[in-house]
Amino acid sequence: MSREIIAILRGIKPDEAEPILDAFLSAGITKIEVPLNSPDPFDSIERMVLRAGDRATLGAGTVLDVASVERLAGIGAQMVVSPDANPDVIKATKAHGMSSYPGVFTPTEAFAALRAGADGLKFFPAFKLGLDGYKALSAVLPKGTKSYAVGGVGAADFGDWFDAGITGFGLGSNIYKPGYSADQVAELAARIVTAYDEAKS
Question: PANTHER family, from UniProt (predicted)?
């Protein structure tokens, strides 16, 4: 089962990357991003790409420019997540065969991202948009648009967001914080997966 959960590993260090990756994979979370404002993020991503093979979709978050996209393509990343909907970043991501998930908050941003070729939309910060805001905005989006709630959304909120039509979630501090051990991450990830599966069923 491929769950629409993107684990956001802000602050992870390269020497932690492989055991943390293993913890997520064992729990059943296979989409993982390392924000580029983490220590040596490209090194962490490359280590995880080499270890995971085809078992995971790995990439970067907080991607702000085309140069970073090109570097990610060079190390085998498969996913680019951004806080904004920069059409140059989206187009470069798609040109390199990677999946693009730009951050949006308004209909204008959402449609601009889709026109540029985005694979899905990251609604951020989701807790500020809220369920009512998302429902109103999603009503005008093309049918089948993938959407992810990111920011201030946790396991207790999954059911309500699924009911509102969200595709999945990006989870940061409630699933990983710098310094967490692989065992801690495995325990948190298992709880998240259980809550996700229950809310989805």
Answer: 2-DEHYDRO-3-DEOXY-6-PHOSPHOGALACTONATE ALDOLASE-RELATED (PTHR30246:SF1), 2-KETO-3-DEOXY-6-PHOSPHOGLUCONATE ALDOLASE (PTHR30246)
Q: Tell me if residue 46 is catalytic.
A: no
| CA end-to-end span of the chain | 13
* Residues spanned by the domain of 110: 5-200
Q: Which of 16, 31, 33, 46 is catalytic?
A: 33
The structure tokens listed for 54 are: 């085809």
The confidence score (pLDDT) of residue 2 equals 81
Cβ proximity of 77 and 60 under 8 Å: yes
Q: What is the mean pLDDT of residues 87-109?
A: 98
The per-residue pLDDT for 50 is 97
13 is catalytic: no
Instruction: Give me the number of domains the chain comprises.
Output: 1
What's the CATH number where 106 sits?
Answer: 3.20.20.70
Packed helices 182-200 and 14-27: angle between N→C axes, nearest 10 degrees: 40
Closest CA to 171 of 31, 15, 40: 31
Mean pLDDT value across residues 164-169: 97
Note the pTM of the prediction, 2 decimals. Answer: 0.96
* Residue among 16, 31, 46, 122 flagged as catalytic: 122
Please report the pLDDT score of residue 127 as a whole number.
Answer: 96
